[in-house]
Amino acid sequence: MNNFAFLKENLPIFLPLIILELILVIAAVTHILKHPHYRFGNKIIWLFVVVLIQIIGPVIYFVFGRGDDQ
After folding, report:
1. Helix (H/G/I), strand (E/B), else coil: 66
2. Taking Cα atoms as reference points, which of 37, 17, 13 lies closest to residue 25?
3. pLDDT the model gives residue 37
4. Distance (Å, rounded) from C-alpha 9 to C-alpha 42?
5. Contact at 8 Å (CB) between 50 and 29?
6. CA 51 → CA 4, 6, 7, 26, distances in Å?
7. Is 70 helix (H, G, I), strand (E, B) or coil?
8. pLDDT digits (tens, 9 = 90+) for 26-54
9. How far apart are the first and last CA of the chain?
């Protein structure tokens, strides 16, 4: 079985995960760009974490990196 056939057969399983990932990344990136306050690190570091570490990156940002909104 080649990779395309595997993806085609399992698309109903992967599609919600892909949509969830895109929503998380978009929400995290917009929050990073709009708010200047972070608990740890700075804007560049958090952008790399969110974009490069797929599903876990945005979750890490929302749990540990998001600072107080003032």
Report:
1. strand
2. 17
3. 78
4. 41
5. yes
6. 25, 26, 23, 9
7. coil
8. 999 999 898 887 777 788 998 999 999 98
9. 54
Asked if residues 28 and 62 have their Cβ atoms less than 8 Å apart, the reply is: yes
pLDDT at residue 36, as a whole number: 80
Helix, strand, coil percentages, rounded to 5, for the chain: 75, 5, 25
Q: At what angle do helices 11-34 and 43-52 cross, to 10 degrees?
A: 180
Q: Is the pLDDT score of 67 beyond 80? A: no
pLDDT tens per residue, range 3-29: 888 888 888 998 999 999 999 999 999
- In whole angstroms, give the CA distance from residue 43 to residue 16: 28
- 39-66 burial, b for 16+ CB within 10 Å, e for fewer? eeeeeeebbebbeeeeeebbebbeeebb
